[in-house]
Structures are given as C-alpha cells and as structure tokens.
Amino acid sequence: MKGSPAAPADKSVFHSAPHGAAVKRKGGMFPLWRYKFLYLLLLPGLLHVVIFHYIPMYGIVIAFQNFSPYAGVSSIFQDPQWVGLDHFRAFFQSYYFGRIIGNTLLISSYKILFGFPAPVILALLLNEIRHARFKKVVQTITYLPHFLSWVILSGLILTLLSPTTGMVSKIIMNLGGPQTNLLASPDFFRPLLVGSEVWAGVGWGSIIYLAALAGIDPAQYESAKMDGAGRFQQMLYISLPGMANILSIIFIFAVAGILNAGFEQVLLLYSPNVYSVGDIIDTYVYREGLINNKYSYAQAVGLFKNVVGLVFLLVTNYIVKRLGKEGIW
Fold first, then answer.
1. What is the DSSP letter of 146?
2. Of 282, 317, 307, 297, which Cα lies nearest the Cα of 108?
3. 3 has a pLDDT exceeding 80
4. What InterPro entries does the entry give (predicted)?
5. By C-alpha distance, which of 328, 126, 131 is closest to 214?
6. Alpha-carbon distance values, 135 to 127, 139, 144, 236 (Å)
7. What is 221-265 written as a DSSP string?
8. Rounded Cα gap, residues 283 and 116, in angstroms
9. Cα(175)–Cα(138) distance, rounded to whole angstroms?
C-alpha cells in the first residue's frame, strides 16, 4: 500500500492533536502566568481602587440613618437609627437646593463649552508645527500647569488678583480704573473659574488627541495634498474624523461629570461674597458634613449627585452610540 493517499491524511490527524491541545491551554491560566509581571505592575493600582473606592462604599447606608461619629463606625450596623428618605427630602426642600444645582450645572456647562474644544484646537495646532524645538517648548509651557496642584495655582491667582498688591489690580489703577477686589466680584468669579480651568488643563488634555493624530495614516494627507486640499481642509476632513472615537469617549465622561464643577478649585478661590454664584454641590457637602457635622445629610446629598451623574453617563453613552460613534462599552 505504498503511496496510498491515506498516509498523508493520517499524518495530518496525528499533528492536529498537539495543536488543538495548545489552543486549549491558551484559553486557561497560561496567559495569566505568562504575563505575571505585568499583572504585578497592575496590582498597586488595583489595590488602590479596591481600598479607597470600593471598600468605603458601605458608608452609603448612613444617608438613610441618623449617624453620629461619636457613636463610632460600628453604630452603622449595630442599632442604627434609620430615617428612610428624610435627608433627601430635607435637601430637596432646602433653600440652597436650587442655588447649588444651578451654580453647579452652569459652571460645569461653561467648562465643557470652553474646556472641551480647547485641547482639541491645541492638538491640531501643535500637529501643524514643523519646527520640532519650538513645538517642544510650547508643549512644555502648556503641560506645566497640570503638574501643579490647585493649592499652588490658587495661590498664584490670589497673588495676581489681590486688590492691594496684585499685578492685575495695579495695572487697572495705573490705567485710571478704580481699586476693585475681583475675587469678591460675583460677575467675575465664574469667568475666573472657567478661564483658570482651561489654562490648567488644556496642555495635558491635548496629549491624548496628539496620540490619536499620530495614528492617522500619513498617506491620507499626501493624497489630500495631491487633490489640492489646504491645511485647513486637511484638518477638517482628515484630522478631526481621525479623532472622532476618542472625542466621543472624552465627551461622554465630560457630560457624566457635569455635577463635578471642580471642588478644590472652587473651595480655594471662593468666599462668602461669591456664594450666590460659586457655591456648588461639593462645597455644600463639605460645609454640611465636615463643618456642621451633618454626616448623614451630607452623604445623602453626595449620593444624589452620584446617582444623577450615573444617569447622565448612561444617557450620553446611549445617544453617542445611536449616532454611530464609539461608546465606553
């Protein structure tokens, strides 16, 4: 039976078993063990999330209790004083409810309106720079504020805008204007928040867009040049569509965080003179919880904020996906 066609078939079957076994082995714990050192690098971040984000979630229940810190943390589970939705009703009926919700939404909307396109525009402009050294200098200058905490940035802003010694106030007075305390001006406070937020985040926010632009095939630009497209047309029809997916994801997170108007920034810059235009949900929770010791009430307000943020996230993600863009899941 020499030369029979059955022999090659048997040989292929013989070699298929180890191949199948190898595929099966890859579906088990083999990849986890193979990349064990990469998972070890992931471990600190994972522990941080679990310890500081998941474990404290048991404290949500105090929003439905009359919790007193003097009774100890154990009182959350041992003989708790349940009050149901009383704290939520008190918040909805509060004089401050309309003011802090309105301020939060307005400040966050302004920040999205001006802060969302600013890094995109900067990334597009940086992408057009051909002088490498000048490009690095611009990137360094725009990235620097991100690495400074709001404590430092607010100190710089307070120094510049001081009504007596501030450089801005002196310039206004030298030009014949009156001595004014801009930090205590309700008309100036919101533009100050939005402007300083854009200044601090525009450089860092442009990095992800520059990475998206780097992934666009250069052949598309060459083809556009051959067809007579200018720089602006290339940005409009090649660069922006190339960033569409990352733009949609960043926009989803921006809208989902619309109730996060910048706690540290507002807390360090505002004063009672501008409470009417600058008091937001987070600063209200801070005052009620840590200053007035209304822990359960503050937890109820914080829980309301987080639930509304989750709803914004789900709705925005649904709308973006319905429009044919990339969602977060």
1. G
2. 282
3. no
4. MetI-like, MetI-like_sf
5. 126
6. 9, 6, 14, 21
7. HHHHHHTT--HHHHIIIIIHHHTHHHHHHHHHHHHHTTT---HHH
8. 23
9. 31
The DSSP secondary structure of 84-122, one letter per residue, reads: TTHHHHHHHTSTHHHHHHHHHHHHHHHHHHHHTHHHHHH
- Residue 214 CA to residue 220 CA, distance in Å, equals 12
Q: What is the mean pLDDT of the chain?
A: 86
| Crossing angle for the helix pair 117-128 and 186-214, to the nearest 10 degrees | 50
pLDDT at 4 over 50: no
Helices (H), 50-185: 86-92, 96-115, 117-128, 132-143, 150-160, 167-174
| Spatial separation of the C-alpha atoms in residues 177 and 47, rounded to whole Å | 56
- Separation of alpha carbons 265 and 108, rounded Å: 12
Determine which helix (DSSP H) or strand (DSSP E) holds 209, and give its type and residue range: helix 186-214
pTM of the full predicted structure? 0.81
Q: In terms of Cα–Cα distance, which of 163, 184, 158 is closest to 173?
A: 163
Tokens of 98: 């309309």
Q: Residues 6 or more apart from 8 whose CB is under 8 A from it?
A: none
Return the biggest CA–CA distance within the chain: 111
CB-based contacts of 235-240 (< 8 A; 24+ apart in sequence): 235/124, 235/128, 239/124, 239/127, 239/213, 240/124
What's the CA angle centered on 43, arms 41 and 47, to 5 degrees? Answer: 145
pLDDT above 70 (res 121): yes
- Report whether pLDDT(24) > 70: no
Distance CA 151, CA 142 (A): 18
